[in-house]
Design a protein that fits this description.
With 328 residues, the protein is α+β, with helices and mostly antiparallel strands. The chain has 7 helices and 12 strands.
Length: 328
């Protein structure tokens, strides 16, 4: 894009103007056919349409364009107003020195503030959601633009056989171009749609394979963790089984030691004389109950000494012992 004409001092030579933007040439490029345009104007045109903007010759590549250095040097000698002229700067410098002046311009702070304000305003804008439209609008205007003004809004279905949805831009261009070259082409559109769908399928297939690999790795990790937990449970179960067996044996031994079996023919009768101290004889007793399942003459019937109090009347040589049966 070129420089605005009203920024230059005096009349600008018409040869210095770009025929696309109608401004003073910026980075002038020439086509093979001799026409000169701004670099920012002609490059997008050639990439999009592969022709000279003057419609005189086909240009297959942007590499066919060349910088016109002598013309650029003449333009750089033109006197131009400062970028901050609208904010109060009255400086006029040669175009070649414009960038140097802008760095030291006293009105640059105002320009920066204006840029910040513009950025804040841009933050309240959004891009049109219609595919192909690159226009940015205020949030409040987006819906109305998409519905009533956007060139890329839907305009109906193609009636030539492809059945694809046409935009207002495609329909208008097709009506303007008799050969339809610049508008909607069913074959070209179907090929483009097929290519887009094929690309989407490839991307989805790639993502599916990636997710499958992740799932397989996750499954292997979970199986390994499950196997480790199972092995740990088995070890713990064996450990507690051994503990249970050990404690069961101890309980059986303790039970046998606390039992009061007495076999006939193996008892000794002892008479013990005790002197009561403080109302106690110094021992506790437990009463056995008659049982009808005696084995080998062992009986639990009777009254037995269950505890001898330490340093009591019964705690002496020849005195009572735990498990003694009181006969009388």
């Amino acid at each position: 894009m070129g420089f605005e004409l009203d920024r230059f001092k005096g009349t600008v030579d018409p040869d210095f103007k770009c025929n696309l933007c109608n401004k003073v040439l910026e980075e002038p490029l020439t086509t093979p056919c001799g026409h000169v345009f701004c670099a920012g104007c002609v490059l997008p045109w050639v990439v999009r349409r592969s022709s000279c903007p003057a419609q005189c010759q086909r240009i297959s590549s942007a590499q066919e364009l060349n910088l016109v250095l002598p013309l650029k040097n003449l333009i750089l000698k033109l006197d131009i107003k400062c970028d901050n002229h609208a904010r109060g700067c009255d400086a006029v410098v040669q175009l070649r020195h414009l960038a140097e002046h802008a760095e030291t311009c006293g009105y640059a702070a105002a320009a920066a503030a204006a840029a910040a304000a513009a950025a804040a305003a841009a933050a309240a804008t959004t891009k049109c959601r219609n595919r192909g439209c690159g226009e940015w609008l205020a949030l409040r205007d987006v819906d109305a633009h998409m519905r009533d003004a956007c060139d890329y809004r839907a305009a109906g279905t193609c009636e030539d056989g492809c059945g694809l949805t046409l935009t207002h831009r495609e329909r208008r261009t097709r009506l303007e171009d008799e050969d339809g070259g610049g508008g909607h082409c069913c074959v070209r559109s179907l090929k483009a749609l097929s290519g887009a769908l094929h690309g989407k399928v490839l991307r989805l297939d790639k993502e599916l394979k990636k997710q499958s690999l992740r799932a397989n790795a996750r499954e292997k990790s979970l199986l390994a963790q499950l196997s480790a937990v199972h092995a740990e449970l088995q070890v713990t179960a064996l450990k507690y089984q051994r503990k249970f067996t050990e404690y069961s044996a101890r309980i059986d031994a303790l039970s046998r030691s606390l039992a009061f079996p007495v076999k006939e023919g193996e008892t000794d009768s002892v008479t013990v004389a005790l002197q009561r101290e403080g109302g106690s004889l110094g021992f506790n007793i437990v009463g056995g109950r008659p049982s009808g399942d005696e084995i080998d003459g062992i009986s639990n019937e009777g009254i037995f000494v269950s505890k001898v109090i330490e340093k009591g009347p019964s705690d002496k040589d020849g005195g009572l012992q735990i498990h003694d049966r009181i006969l009388e």
